[in-house]
Amino acid sequence: MFSADAKSEVQETAQASGAYSLTCLLPFHLSSLHAGCPTATGRIFFFFMAKTRPIQLARRVLDIEIAALRRVRTRIGSSFQQAVRLMQQRLETGGKIIVTGIGKSGHIGHKIASTLASTGTTSVTLDPVDAAHGDLGVVSRKDLILVLSYSGNTDELLRVVPLIKRQGVPILVMTGNPRSHLARQSDVILDVSVDQEACPLNLAPTSSTTAMLALGDALAMVLLQNRGFQRKDFAQLHPAGAIGRDLLLPVKEIMRPKKQIPICTEKTLVTQALRQITSKRCGAAIVVNGRGKLAGIYTHGDFVRGFQKDPAIGKRTLASVMTRRPITISFGSLAAKALHIFETHRIEDLVVVDAAHRPVGLVDSQDLTRFRLL
Q1: 83 and 178 share a domain?
Q2: Same structural domain for residues 214 and 264?
Q3: What is the DSSP letter of 109?
Q4: Considering its fold, how many domains does the chain have in total?
Q5: What phi and psi values does residue 59 have, to the nearest 5 degrees?
Q6: Among 90, 137, 143, 209, which is least packed, fewest CB within 10 Å?
Q7: Residue 238 pLDDT class (50, 70, 90 cuts)
Q8: Are 171 and 187 a contacting pair, CB within 8 Å?
Q9: CA 262 to CA 324: how far, in whole Å?
Q10: Phi, psi of 3 (to 5 degrees)
Q11: 92 in any annotated domain
């Protein structure tokens, strides 16, 4: 009825997983273990894992999906580069990325399109059923179609893809079957084939949809990097989100006001400036001239570096040690601009000035973390 090897395999699996004895397996389709059928063995394994070790079963599901991702990772190569190149070309000429799929692949397609759009890549989804009833009007010759179908033989897509191809629109197919009908009609094939689904019946799309989603994320992130997409761009596209809301804050809401920062003259001694820096718990002292306009900045880091060279630096005036013409930001700017300045110039303190170039506040790099900007 079933091979000795199959019987031994099930027994070892049951013992390793803490399942019941082999005799408990007999009522559960043990006859299907004819000739050591691995599928049947896997089903019985999952059945008893589910009954006895749900945590182990959950981990096994994740292990299977991780293995699928590793498999997809090894196949990223020339076809992926070609896909990115085609997508960039279309975007640079005013086109968009249209993602289409049916069923579970369609759901993954919606997520991929959403990720592309939220990271600066113009993207929409197209329902293949609706496409055959008028929605093909959304497709222009400048666009690119990303088709998701694990089997590569989905009827709804097979009816629509030739119509799109007739318009001269490039077609990328993300599939687990590189020899399928859809793959043969594509310009680029992205292979997402997996050894097995995480489903114990090897039926429900699990590993395959994870592979599709991850490869879609990879496309989106490479395009983001190539197109120079920044945090401030993300904020503009996510005004209601936490990151967008914080980056769109005006500088005046994140700066330390004038009364909370040391304001010194050029004649102030270094020791005097340090007392103010310490008492106000600030990283720098702002130096003004006789007209109250910004003359320079002196930071705690400047003192540490200067003291190593001159232990008597405390007796010197700020005019002799300060940094003149420091980098500034206007009072009406956004926090996103402040973040860009910090990242570009690698500074610790940013002076906020008014239209007359008088200091009105200071943004400390530590404040960025407090406002979730870093």
Answers
A1: yes
A2: no
A3: H
A4: 3
A5: -65, -35
A6: 137
A7: low
A8: yes
A9: 16
A10: -75, 160
A11: yes
Distances (CA, A) of 112 to 139, 207, 235: 18, 16, 19
Q: Residue 279: what residue type?
A: S
Nearest CA to 172 out of 122, 227, 216, 217 is that of 216
Q: How far is CA 220 from the centre of its chain?
A: 8
* Residue 246 located in a structural domain: no
CA 120 to chain centre: 12
Examine the domain organization and report whether 38 and 81 are in the same domain.
no
pTM more than 0.70:
no
Residue 37: CB partners within 8 Å, gap ≥ 6? 6
Conformational region of residue 263, where left means phi above 0, alpha means psi within -120 to 50, and beta covers everything else = beta
Query: Which pLDDT does position 31 carry in this prediction?
Result: 40
85 and 181 together in one domain:
yes
Residue 195 to residue 75: CA distance in whole angstroms: 14
**Number of alpha carbons in the 13 Å side-chain half-sphere of residue 221:** 6
| Total length of the chain | 374
The whole domain housing 306 covers 251-370
Whose structure tokens read 């088709």?
147
Say which CATH number the domain at 183 has. 3.40.50.10490
Give residues with Cβ within 8 angstroms of 188, minimum separation 6: 79, 82, 83, 86, 170, 171, 172, 173
What is the model's pLDDT at position 44? 52
